[in-house]
Amino acid sequence: MNIYTNATVDATEAASEDPHGCWWGLAVLASAMLFGMTTWFSATAVVPQLGTVWPITSGQAAWLTIAVQLGFVVGALGSAILNMADLIAPRRLMLYGATGAAASNALLLAAPDVSVAIALRCLTGVFLAGVYPPAMKAMSTWFRFKRGTALGVMVGALTLGSATPHLVNGLGGLQWQLVIVVTSLLTLAGGLLAEVVGRDGPFPFPRGRFDPRMAWRVFTDRGVLFASLGYFGHMWELYAMWAWFSVFMGDTLSLQGVGAAGRWSAIATFAVIGIGAVGCWLGGVLGDRLGRARATILAMTISGACALAIGFLQTAPIPVILAVSLLWGFWVVADSAQFSTAVTEIGRQDYVGTALTLQLAIGFILTIPTIWVVPLIEEAVGWRFAFAILALGPVAGIVSMRKIRLLKST
């Protein structure tokens, strides 16, 4: 099978997958990741309420989210260097990570000030690095033929979870202590669900041995390198779009004189981010049928075009703005799982977990400068060009994925 250019497999290989067991495994692990990752955005959902408990500046409010990403990077890099995702059973590692994240999140209830809260958010991110990468590896043991679709559903679950805080804000915030307790319990439940209810699939990866050098040697495979470079371009765009779209929409609605702009902006943002869950599923289907390279190039072409155009539409009719925004939200994340799928298919099989973890770590590092720079550009020249810089990521990603199509089949 040439996974670089097409996804054709013979009937024997396709039939080797248990049509019932694999989808049951997907349902369990996708639910486990959805629950397990809820603590990522728990503080984001209750920032207005936290502002009544502690004096919080706008910069500190942003750090309540950025700290989780930094913690995730630290945790993922440490996990990659220690080969944790290849030495510890993936579902067991998910339980460890979920337990730590749930505890760190729950400690927000006792935090005396925002500085301690930010530190706890960072620690939450560290532990979540033990949930996301091993969940992707665990799911890969269930699928060969439709692995792209399966991992697309996994990332779709994460996407829907990412959108939920905006719905909470749009419908009216809940008591912040309740949000923290519920998200902590859900994260713990996700870890328990993976370990107790879940099981390994029929296509396990060979167990690796401890070798810190493999944290970087995994990139000596050109296929893994190009797939990861494509993912880095994707991440350059994704989280900055997710982080600042609600502000853009709020400004746009206010500019056009729409009442309750903040509320409608939050609801619109939930729809724009949430529709990406469907995009992840379709991206997986296309990845399995057309190949990872073609599917990701299609997604990045459309999302990059939307990034270039959206800022120029502030005075356009609201339905037009919403249509382009939904198109962007659909395609901006549709390719996400396909980069990871490619790594599981072409990377060294005994260090797949290490490769996935390192790919995610570097990708999340690249989200930080774009989240930081978008509001600076908006303040200087307005929204017309603030989002346009994000299109650089898809351009770089397209170049990388075009290169991967030139590689020979393995």
From TrEMBL:
Transmembrane intervals: 21-41, 61-81, 93-112, 118-136, 148-168, 174-197, 223-244, 264-283, 295-314, 320-339, 351-374, 380-399
InterPro entries hit by this protein: MFS (IPR011701), MFS_dom (IPR020846), MFS_trans_sf (IPR036259)
Ranges of residues in domain Major facilitator superfamily (MFS) profile: 223-410
PROSITE patterns: MFS
Keyword Membrane (UniProt): yes
UniProt xrefs under Pfam families: MFS_1 (PF07690)
UniProt keyword annotations, A-Z: Membrane, Transmembrane, Transmembrane helix
Record PANTHER family: MFS TRANSPORTER, TRANSPORTER MFS SUPERFAMILY
Protein name per its UniProtKB record: MFS transporter
Organism: Rhodovibrio sodomensis
Lineage: Bacteria, Pseudomonadati, Pseudomonadota, Alphaproteobacteria, Rhodospirillales
